[in-house]
Each structure stands twice: as structure tokens, then as C-alpha cells.
Structure to design on (398 residues):
């Protein structure tokens, strides 16, 4: 059963509004309207063919960016419901959080960051902001989706503040500064980079971690990158596996793995909910603004569970993300994007006509960023098709 709306939840009736004023919807709250706009966006549909870990054609049952986003939304809504938060805003942020990811997962992000190094680099959160504020062309009165301030804030700050109050980048961004797409946008619409985001955004962020941990285990098992018993090196997963074996001694490995994933998600959600209750009881925020002005995130794993979760990430990094099969494919994927970027930079006429409108006035940085935006929007499938069109040989990526 849903908890009543908490005083610290974001209230759609008190939203800070949209950059371009619009008449209110007769049937939907501002946050529900945001969520619907994300779902109907072109960028959201493209997530169907964007890599999570495995390239789309390697199997029908592996996660894609789309199915991952749906799973994040389910976990996030479950937590939001328990905490009395606005479920529509939470779902918006969960579904939108990967809109800026390029093709081929983190390999694609590394490649684009290297290609754009001289022009501010590539950051997927900044790219998501570009998508929802500029790159979607669906409405007659504005570019982007014209989302509420609260949705834009959550997209940019779900992992915490980007600066201190003086504007100096936080530790995470100290080396290279606030990503250029975000730094440029806040000159027009101040998203208060110094503060924490809403609890709805914090819930969406931790739901992303939970989904990654559980479902990458599921995909890794399915791909045969590791076996179920390999997961016994971690106390948490070892305990769940032992309990399942005791309760169902004759269960086959596929169902044992599914039970591990299910129980792991439940364990992590329960731990986050209990820790959030403690934090909220300690600071007693009376509004969403009180949440923003805290010195720490109020939605987090308890210390002991954070250690368990970090151990899962280390296991997956070693046995999945750095597995020689995955590394070989991702290395070839990076090379595909390097070659596409260089080709478009040298011969801009190879870009689609709609991407050439106004390009005549581009300087080198504008042209590079335009090409980066085009490549970031590609699906795995389209990137491969483009490479096949422009080059004599294209890796199979299997």
C-alpha cells in the first residue's frame, strides 16, 4: 500500500514550472506529463537497440538500455511508494537517466569522450540534458521536451551536487570541471548545481545501482561468463544461494539464478528503505527544499550493505565487464565510433541532411559537438549500418 504523500516529497502543484510556460494539463500533473513526454520521445525508443553490456544482436534475452530503464523505474517506484514520494517524478527520472548514452555502452562513452577531448569531452548526464532540452524536435513552440525544473534538476544532479555554493566543482568534477553541456545550460536556467537533488532523484539513482547489480548477474550467468557457484565468494550472494538450496534442494541452476536475483533486489530495496527512514527521522525535513539543503544524500545503502554492494560491483568488473570476450567486442566497438567520428569530421557531407542545417556557420568545436550529438543518438544497429556504408570492413561484434 502506498504511503501518504510525505512533506519532503516534491509536490507537482508547487513545481517551479517549465522554461517555456505552457497551459496546465486538464488530466495530468506536471510530473506525469514529464514522464509521458519521456516515454513518447524518439530517444527513449532508441534505447531498445542500445547496449547495456551485450550488443543487441548477441541474444534476445540480454538487457538493453530500454529494458534496464524499465527495471530501474520499477525498483524506483517501489521505493518512492514506500517513502511517500511522488511516483511520477521518480518514474520520469528513472526512465530518462540513460537517454544520453551512446551506442555500445561504456565503450561508446569512452570513445566519444576521447573524440571530443579538445571540445569539452563527453558526459552522458550532460548528453541526457541536451536530449531533453534541445535535441528532441517534437513540439511546435520549443526544442526538447520542456520538462519541469524538478525533472531537469534530477537528471543533472541525481548523483549529488556538481559544485559548492561558490561555484567551484565538487571532487567528482574537480579534474575537468562541470560538463560543458550542463555549464552552458545553467546560464539560461539555473538548476542550482550546489545543492542535492530531490529524494525522488536520489531514489532513481540508487535504483539504477540495484538494477545494475542484480541484472548484470543475471546476464552474466546467461552468457556463461561465470557460474552460480562463483558468486559464493561474496557473503551476501553466498547466503542467498545457500538459503535457496536449503529450501529447494533439487532446483535447476536457471531457477536458482533467478531466485538469487529476486532475493538480492528485495534485500537491497529493504536496506535502502530502512536507511532512508533513519536519515529522514534524524534530519526531519519538512519540504523538498529542506532535502536539497542537506549536507549528504538521504537515500543510501547502510554502511555494511554498501560494502556488500561494492563487492558485487568488484566481482562484476572482474568477471564480466573485463572478461576477455566482452573486452574484445567493446574494443572493436570503440574503433567503430572512432572511425565514424573521424569520417564525419573530414567529410561532413556524409551526415544526414537534417544534421547539416546551419552547419555552414560551425567552427571546429561546433562541428565536433554536432557530430558527437549525432553519434550519441545512434543505436548499436545504426552505428554498424553506417560503418558498413562508409567503410570496406566492419567487425561482427560477437
Amino acid at each position: 500500500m502506498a504511503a501518504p504523500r510525505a512533506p519532503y516529497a516534491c509536490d507537482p502543484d508547487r513545481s517551479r514550472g517549465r522554461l517555456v510556460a505552457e497551459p496546465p494539463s486538464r488530466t495530468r500533473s506536471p510530473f506525469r506529463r514529464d514522464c509521458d513526454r519521456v516515454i513518447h520521445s524518439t530517444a527513449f525508443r532508441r534505447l531498445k537497440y542500445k547496449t547495456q553490456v551485450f550488443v543487441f544482436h548477441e541474444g534476445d534475452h540480454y538487457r538493453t538500455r530500454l529494458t534496464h530503464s524499465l527495471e530501474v523505474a520499477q525498483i524506483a517506484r517501489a521505493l518512492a511508494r514506500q517513502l511517500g514520494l511522488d511516483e511520477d517524478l521518480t518514474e520520469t527520472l528513472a526512465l530518462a537517466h540513460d537517454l544520453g548514452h551512446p551506442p555500445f555502452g561504456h565503450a561508446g562513452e569512452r570513445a566519444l569522450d576521447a573524440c571530443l577531448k579538445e571540445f569539452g569531452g563527453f558526459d552522458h548526464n550532460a548528453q541526457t540534458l541536451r536530449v531533453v532540452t534541445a535535441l528532441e524536435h517534437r513540439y511546435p513552440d520549443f526544442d526538447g521536451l520542456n520538462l519541469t525544473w524538478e525533472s531537469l534538476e534530477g537528471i543533472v544532479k541525481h548523483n549529488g551536487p556538481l559544485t559548492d555554493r561558490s561555484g567551484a566543482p565538487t571532487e567528482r568534477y574537480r579534474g575537468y570541471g562541470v560538463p560543458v553541456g550542463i555549464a552552458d545550460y545553467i546560464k539560461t536556467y539555473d538548476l542550482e548545481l550546489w545543492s542535492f537533488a530531490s529524494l525522488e532523484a536520489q531514489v532513481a539513482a540508487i535504483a539504477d545501482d540495484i538494477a545494475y547489480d542484480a541484472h548484470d548477474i543475471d546476464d552474466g550467468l546467461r552468457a556463461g561468463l561465470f557460474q552460480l557457484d562463483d558468486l559464493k565468494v561474496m557473503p551476501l550472494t553466498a547466503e542467498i544461494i545457500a538459503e535457496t538450496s536449503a529450501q529447494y534442494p533439487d532446483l535447476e541452476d536457471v531457477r536458482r539464478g533467478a531466485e538469487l536475483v529476486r532475493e538480492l533486489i528485495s534485500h537491497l530495496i529493504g536496506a535502502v528503505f530502512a536507511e532512508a527512514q533513519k536519515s529522514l527521522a534524524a534530519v526531519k525535513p519538512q519540504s523538498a527544499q529542506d532535502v536539497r539543503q542537506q549536507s549528504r544524500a538521504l537515500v543510501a545503502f547502510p554502511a555494511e550493505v554498501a560494502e556488500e554492494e561494492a563487492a558485487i560491483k568488484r566481482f562484476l568488473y572482474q568477471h564480466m565487464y573485463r572478461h576477455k570476450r566482452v573486452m574484445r567486442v567493446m574494443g572493436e566497438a570503440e574503433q567503430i565510433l572512432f572511425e565514424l567520428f573521424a569520417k564525419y569530421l573530414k567529410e561532413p557531407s556524409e551526415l544526414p541532411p537534417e544534421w547539416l542545417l546551419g552547419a555552414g556557420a560551425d567552427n571546429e568545436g561546433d562541428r565536433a559537438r554536432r557530430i558527437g550529438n549525432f553519434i550519441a543518438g545512434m543505436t548499436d544497429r545504426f552505428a554498424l549500418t553506417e560503418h558498413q556504408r562508409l567503410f570496406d570492413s566492419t567487425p561482427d561484434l560477437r
